[in-house]
Amino acid sequence: MKIAVGSDHAGYRIKEAIKKYLQNHNYKFYDFGTHDEQPVDYVDFGEFVAKSVSTGNFSRGILICGTGIGMSIVANKFKGVKAALCHDEFTAKMSREHNDSNVLTIGGRVVDEEKALKIVDIWLKTPFLGGRHERRVDKISLIDEKNFK
Ligand code: RB5
User: Fold this and answer.
1) Is the bond preceding 34 in cis, omega lying within 30 degrees of 0?
2) Whose CA is nearest to atom 9 of ligand 1?
3) pLDDT in tens, 99-117
4) Ligand 1 binding site (Cβ under 6 Å of any ligand atom)
5) N or C: which terminus of the chain carries fewer CB neighbours within 10 A?
6) pTM to 2 decimals?
């Protein structure tokens, strides 16, 4: 699993903590920035990460902004990207089991570092359940096909 990581200034600190977690757990990842707390536009970093997942260069993406909302809006504009904004372990688990999410977005001003790492941990470890959920996720892909013709 290759993970693309990105944030704006409001998500920078949580991104750095997530990078340490990924390093400690031997995940392969690339940091698309931002690289400090100077104000930047979340849209740019959301685009870098979502594009890299959409093209297949990375299998997963993790994006952090202040609320996680802007990043999820941007990421879901890209074909094949299923971005899920998760605020707790339950939504992180469901987003994998039911929605097969491939991009996780987190609000750096919503959750603390400890909670963010728990969200990342469960999101990375939880498999997609398939079954009845497969049919629903396939329907999402059909919408993608229509929109990106
Ligand atoms: C930046 O102030 C903030 O708007 C951004 O981090 C994010 O929350 C957008 O959705």
Assistant:
1) yes
2) 70
3) 999 999 999 999 999 999 9
4) 8, 10, 42, 65-67, 69-70
5) C
6) 0.98
